[in-house]
């Protein structure tokens, strides 16, 4: 993890330097209008470093290309704000909105698949899971509430009891986010906590009798809390071009610390990205 912190420090220093520079740059910004229609699409190219949670996954680098779509129409919306996101990408319907509160019906992927051909990984981070049966992603439908504390901070809660896996349990997540600006650099920090039942965590991190081997011993996971913290910086380079960088730390639930599927207790992800606003 400390090595990844070092890798992240260099691009962040560069971004801060640009942000404190008195030369002004212009960029297209996409401010969310809670009561209006419209949106934007961005293309992001990132160079990332990851200390993965999975066993036998070395610290490594990789590149990520992402298309982020944000659009809303008559209450319906698609949301993927990337670096500035407060929560998970998804889609939904906003049924109530005022200056300080919004309430949505929201569908999002709360757990990615494991050991599947379509797992979203960097440089085969799950290559050490050979012998583990595939776990499908968990797409959840629920209610999301957002409280805007002021113009720079917000609190968001997701209560998602309906699972694509058929689990009759509840996923509960909480995010707090704050942004601030210094000269031309925009900073953000996000803290999160999510609770999952023993059924969900055992599905992803437990080891069944059919999977037992010399490497993977039988294991049953209990319920637990995942904690996260992220710090990021963005800086407009030119019209429609933005430089982004962030560092995210994820502390895994204590109930899976001894799972043979995972190795570190804290997963670390750092990246620097060039983002182009398509329209």
UniProtKB/TrEMBL annotation:
One of its GO terms (cellular component) is cell outer membrane. Residues 1-27 form the signal peptide. It holds the Pfam family MipA. The keyword Nucleotidyltransferase does not apply. InterPro entries: MipA. The keyword Calcium does not apply. It is found in: Cell outer membrane. Belongs to the MipA/OmpV family. This is Outer membrane protein.
